[in-house]
């Protein structure tokens, strides 16, 4: 039997799962060279959240905040999707059912891996939003305070289209709908420190009968809520898990 001591219903997988929800965090992009937040040398070891990731930070020092996101946006040109991203794309292509990716990540590696049905609950680095006309723009290059909004033409109005601490995540109604009908919930590369994402596993258990699996380098804060936990690199464990889900294996 694969998986941890908590076991799993391996032999029923292929026939049962029609609505898979995969929650991803920074750990799935780590093997692509994108820093996580809370690991050694992570972003929050280098930067103070209150300096770069709150509305107050942007009000107090917009140049510092724009620079922080400009650098992360520029890095996207140097990184590529990894085996973890590609495994999820394969699941979407081959499973006879729905696979929704809810990501806390603001990078575009799921899209570049060929995935669809991606919900960016914390926003996207390759978008900026106008605080005057509320238009959201696709954005590849740096954005500065003097950069004019392409729609309303005003300056000192564009901000990163990112959910900062103290702000509501995006698409929560759609996310709740997906969790409501989910029959397999897989959490990948997230430490389980940030809500509401960290509460999705208990939500799917309360509302339904979903099987729940944690894939992470180490135990997350919420590991005890999962029916099954597999610890190691997502780039190794996810392709193996997807093989299991897509192929009938008798335990
Ligand atoms: N494979 C699997 N897991 C990994 C890997 C890997 N190669 N590398 C690191 N991890 C795990 C770490 O062990 C850690 O538990 O990924 C997790 C990353 O945790 P965080 O850095 O806390 O990132 P995340 O959970 O995505 O953060 C949530 O917090 O800072 C905010 O808005 C930001 O979306 C972010 C949210």
From TrEMBL:
One of its GO terms (molecular function) is NAD-dependent protein lysine deacetylase activity. Keywords: Acyltransferase, Cytoplasm, Metal-binding, NAD, Transferase, Zinc. Substrate binds at residues 69, 72. 2 residues (Tyr-69 and Arg-72) present in a large hydrophobic pocket are probably involved in substrate specificity. They are important for desuccinylation activity, but dispensable for deacetylation activity. InterPro entries: DHS-like_NAD/FAD-binding_dom, NAD-dep_sirtuin_deacylases, Sirtuin, Sirtuin_cat_small_dom_sf, Sirtuin_class_III, Ssirtuin_cat_dom. The keyword Acyltransferase applies. It comes from the Bacteria. Its EC number is 2.3.1.286. This is NAD-dependent protein deacylase. NAD(+) binds at residues 25-44, 104-107, 189-191, 216-218, 234. Belongs to the sirtuin family. Class III subfamily. Binds 1 zinc ion per subunit. It is found in: Cytoplasm. CDD domains: SIRT5_Af1_CobB. Zn(2+) binds at residues 130, 133, 149, 152. NAD-dependent lysine deacetylase and desuccinylase that specifically removes acetyl and succinyl groups on target proteins. Modulates the activities of several proteins which are inactive in their acylated form. Gene3D superfamilies: SIR2/SIRT2 'Small Domain, TPP-binding domain. Its cofactor is Zn(2+). The active site is at 122 (proton acceptor). Residues 1-249 form the Deacetylase sirtuin-type domain. It catalyses: N(6)-succinyl-L-lysyl-[protein] + NAD(+) + H2O = 2''-O-succinyl-ADP-D-ribose + nicotinamide + L-lysyl-[protein]; N(6)-acetyl-L-lysyl-[protein] + NAD(+) + H2O = 2''-O-acetyl-ADP-D-ribose + nicotinamide + L-lysyl-[protein].
């Amino acid at each position: 039997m694969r998986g941890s001591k908590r076991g799993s219903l391996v032999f029923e997988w292929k026939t049962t799962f029609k609505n898979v929800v995969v929650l991803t965090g920074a750990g799935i992009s780590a093997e692509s060279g994108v820093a996580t937040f809370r690991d050694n040398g992570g972003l929050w070891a280098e930067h103070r959240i209150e300096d770069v990731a709150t509305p107050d930070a942007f009000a107090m020092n917009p140049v510092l905040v724009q620079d922080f996101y400009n650098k992360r946006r520029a890095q996207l040109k140097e990184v590529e999707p990894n085996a973890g991203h590609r495994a999820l794309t394969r699941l979407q292509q081959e499973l006879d059912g729905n696979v929704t990716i809810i990501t806390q990540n603001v990078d575009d590696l799921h899209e570049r891996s060929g995935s669809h049905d991606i919900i960016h609950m914390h926003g996207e680095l390759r978008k900026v939003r106008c605080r005057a006309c509320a238009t959201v723009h696709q954005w590849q290059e740096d954005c500065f305070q003097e950069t004019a909004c392409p729609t309303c033409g005003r300056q000192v109005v564009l901000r990163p289209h990112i959910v900062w601490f103290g702000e509501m995540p995006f698409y929560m109604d759609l996310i709740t709908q997906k969790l409501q009908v989910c029959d397999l919930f897989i959490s990948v590369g997230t430490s389980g420190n940030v809500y509401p994402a960290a509460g999705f596993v208990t939500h799917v258990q309360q509302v339904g009968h979903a099987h729940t699996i944690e894939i992470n380098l180490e135990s997350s804060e919420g590991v005890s809520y999962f029916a099954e936990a597999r610890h190691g690199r997502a780039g190794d464990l996810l392709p193996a898990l997807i093989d299991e889900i897509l192929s009938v294996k008798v335990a």
